[in-house]
Specification:
Helix content: under 10%
Number of strands: 11
Order of helices and strands: EEEEEEEEEEE
Structural class: mainly beta
Radius of gyration: 13 Å
Distance between the termini: 40 Å
Largest sheet: 7 strands, mixed
Number of helices: 0
Length: about 110
Amino acid sequence: QVQLVESGGGLAQPGGSLRLSCAASGFFFLESSMSWFRRAPGKDRELVASISPDSYNTYYADFVKGRFAVSRDNAKSVLYLQMNRLKPEDTAVYYCKEDLRNYWGQGTQVTVSS
C-alpha cells in the first residue's frame, strides 16, 4: 500500500522557518523523482520544488528560489522541504508527490501570519 505522509506544517511568523517532511512507503523510493506542490486558498495547485532520485537535479519555482530547499534521504525514504524567510503568501496546504506514478500525500497546512 502506497503512503505519502506529510508532517511539519503549522503556524510560522513572517521571516520564520519550517521544515516539512514526507515519509514514503509502499513503493521503491529510490527510483522516483519527488515534488512538493502547494494550494493556497482560492488558487490552483502549483509546483514548488522537485528533486531527482539521486538528488543531483533540483527545480524550484521562482517564488521560492533562494528561500526553500528540497532534499531527500533515500535510506529513510523521506522527502524534505526546508522553508526559510517565510512570507504570508506562502500560506497553503503543501503536498508531496511521487512523480513516476503520480502518488499524492494528504497535505499539511502551513500558515504564515503575525
